[in-house]
């Protein structure tokens, strides 16, 4: 019988996860299919239980459900520490994991960016931002988290213990002074940017976790300013590869997954 996995989010039309995982299934000869479902926040618990009842192998959880999904699973220590999950594995229990941290750090490593001792500004305080900030602190970065609602950033940083939380009103000075800028908000999907081009400069690293479109307004401005840029595809692929391993117990073909995503994005 075909094995099923899926991603739950709202909205979900932008996702490249089905393209990526289905390419991996085909390459490995696994009889499985990856689907995407638009789930309203108030129906998340029902959707998770429904997928489990239908015999799904597991789920990915994306915006805006990563924090809320914690209450519907038994998180592993990393996910519990981060305070967000993006991968569920069904069995006797619903196990929760966070592969965003792995994906983000692998994207930085691939770009030969070391964050230890560097000042890193993370924009956003949602599930992805929580995972990234947690990983950055673990790598020895000096982390500042800025969010539209300052209190959410402050609470996140208090939980981390070694980071500073602030509001978006501080962005001009923070962007100009940081070594690495990471956008962990979804604004790039809407063709917008929280950062003005004149705040950016040569020598910085600018990483936007948005992957659709692959060149967001932020990355375009960063490239014009002479900064090193990293798009969100590498993070998507590597967090997806880790989820794949959790579901199926095998290492997926990362190169196949990335080619499939970039091809689909190029074709629009």
From TrEMBL:
Signal peptide: none annotated. Residues 7-88 form the Shikimate dehydrogenase substrate binding N-terminal domain. Keywords: Amino-acid biosynthesis, Aromatic amino acid biosynthesis, NADP, Oxidoreductase. Its EC number is 1.1.1.25. NADP(+) binds at residues 124-128, 147-152, 209, 232. This is Shikimate dehydrogenase (NADP(+)). Residues 232-262 form the SDH C-terminal domain. Pfam families: SDH_C, Shikimate_DH, Shikimate_dh_N. It catalyses: shikimate + NADP(+) = 3-dehydroshikimate + NADPH + H(+). One of its GO terms (molecular function) is shikimate 3-dehydrogenase (NADP+) activity. The active site is at 66 (proton acceptor). Pathway: Metabolic intermediate biosynthesis; chorismate biosynthesis; chorismate from D-erythrose 4-phosphate and phosphoenolpyruvate: step 4/7. Shikimate binds at residues 15-17, 62, 86, 100, 211, 239. Residues 114-186 form the Quinate/shikimate 5-dehydrogenase/glutamyl-tRNA reductase domain. Involved in the biosynthesis of the chorismate, which leads to the biosynthesis of aromatic amino acids. Catalyzes the reversible NADPH linked reduction of 3-dehydroshikimate (DHSA) to yield shikimate (SA). Belongs to the shikimate dehydrogenase family. Homodimer. GO terms for biological process: amino acid biosynthetic process; aromatic amino acid family biosynthetic process; chorismate biosynthetic process; shikimate metabolic process. InterPro entries: Aminoacid_DH-like_N_sf, NAD(P)-bd_dom_sf, SDH_C, Shikimate_DH, Shikimate_DH-bd_N, Shikimate_DH_fam, Shikm_DH/Glu-tRNA_Rdtase.
